[in-house]
Amino acid sequence: MQYSSVELIWAIVVVIFVLLVLASTVLSTIILHSKKIRKSEEKFRTLYERVFDALILINKDGEIIDVNESAGRLLGFVKEDLDRKIMTNFIAPVRRSDFEEGFSEAFKGGSSYLGEFEMIGNNDIVIHAEVGCTGLEIHGYDYVLASFRDITGRILAEAKLRDKNIALREVLANLEQDKVKIKKQVASAVEHVLMPSLDKLINQDGTVNTAYYRSLKENLREMASFSVDMGDAMTKLSPREMEICKLTRNGSTAKEIAIALNITVATVEKHKEKIRKKLKISNKKINLATHLQAISRAS
Q1: What contacts 243, CB < 8 A, 6 or more positions away?
Q2: What are the φ/ψ torsions at residue 210 (nearest 5 degrees)?
Q3: Which is nearest to 146 in space by CA: 156, 155, 133?
């Protein structure tokens, strides 16, 4: 069967038309698909840039290929300054081997949480971050996407809390020591001041020793709010000197003290000189009674 030239021409035209329709359909499909890909890439890029965590894309040689804005802020660089930099240079030397091990595992297609790392940012600023890695294939090439979450604030807060706890323990230990010290000082006051005053409260003739009565009354009042400074001062003195201190502080004159202790006025004055020397006021124009009263009132 033979076809005329007209029929052949029409057949060719039909074939061309069909091919054009198919080509148009394929081209439209490609264009539509490309638009979807671009739109998807734009969405990914927007998410990539705006995500809170720092994201760094690394090639098989450990070079930084791309970073998001959070990564730039974290490390203190603009994105362009990080291009092709070696990622491990931003990891503290003591943990680089750990990062490289996790990096290698991620290249095998896995994802892993690497833990907490110290990173070195711009101007050698130390950054604490939680690090995770995941393997990716993009356009036929293998990459690792590393994510870094800044935990510097948390680490510093924990360090401050530890310091405060240490300081608190020291304060509590000092308080306990002060408690023991005060107990010893109160016991010393009872033994060396109150008890001698009680023993000498009554004179041989049965009358009350006025000077010791005033001293005993004042001593008992002070026991409720015993002064550490007064206790420290008392530990430097002999029992006789403490007796004279108490009587002096309560307003007794040298003559009254001499009568109360059955000693001479000259002996009282010698004791006072020794007391001033032990209290480190021997060369100062300070009234002994006033000084003793000030020590007693101190808290």
Answers
A1: 193, 196, 197, 261
A2: -60, -45
A3: 133
Q: What is the mean pLDDT of residues 91-117?
A: 88
Distance CA 231, CA 247 (A): 16
For the chain, the first-to-last Cα distance in angstroms comes to 130
Q: Which two tokens stand for residue 207?
A: 């009358």
Q: Are the C-beta atoms of residues 58 and 64 closer than 8 Å to each other?
A: yes
Please state, in angstroms and rounded to a whole number, the distance separating the CA atoms of residues 251 and 198. 18
Which has the minimum average pLDDT: 75-79, 123-127, 291-295?
A: 291-295
CB 119 within 8 A of CB 149: no
Give the three-class secondary structure for 119: strand
C-beta of residue 115 within 8 angstroms of C-beta of residue 94: no
Question: What order of strands is seen across the sheet that includes strand 64-67?
Answer: 64-67, 54-58, 141-150, 126-138, 111-120
Tokens for 297, please give them.
């009132």
* Number of other residues whose CB lies within 10 A of the CB of residue 91: 21
pLDDT (0 to 100) of residue 246: 81
- What DSSP string describes 163-216? HHHHHHHHHHHHHHHHHHHHHHHHHHHIIIIIHHHHHTSB-TTS-B-HHHHHHH
Q: Indicate the average pLDDT of the chain.
A: 79
* pLDDT recorded at residue 299: 45
